[in-house]
Amino acid sequence: MAVEEETIERAESLWGHIVAATRELANDYSEGELRTVIGFLERPAAVTHESTLRLTRRSLE
């Protein structure tokens, strides 16, 4: 599914400063350190996702 240009422009105005600031912060870390940070964020996100699926299934029963 293609994203419309207008949607990209609206998102840029809302989130562009956060993306730019995060990239700037990331420059202070080595590639290995960033991989560690990404792993730290991905694992809890997966747990949250699984928990949401369990809760959603229970609410449908």
Question: What report would you give on this structure?
Answer:
The radius of gyration is 17 Å and the shape is flat. It has 61 residues and is an all-alpha fold. The longest helix is centred in the C-terminal third of the chain and has 30 residues, at 31-60. The protein has helices at 5-26, 31-60. Helix content is 85%, strand content 0%. It has two helices and no strands.
Secondary structure elements and pairings:
Layout: H1 5-26, H2 31-60
In percent, how much strand structure appears in the residues?
Answer: under 5%
- Total beta strand runs: 0
What is the H-and-E element order? HH
Structural class determined from secondary elements? mainly alpha
Distance between the termini: 32 Å
| Shape annotation | flat
Provide the residue-averaged pLDDT.
90
Number of DSSP helical runs? 2
Query: Could you list the spans in which at least 5 consecutive residues all have pLDDT below 50?
Result: none
Largest sheet: none
Rg calculated over all Cα atoms: 17 Å
The level of helicity is: over 70%
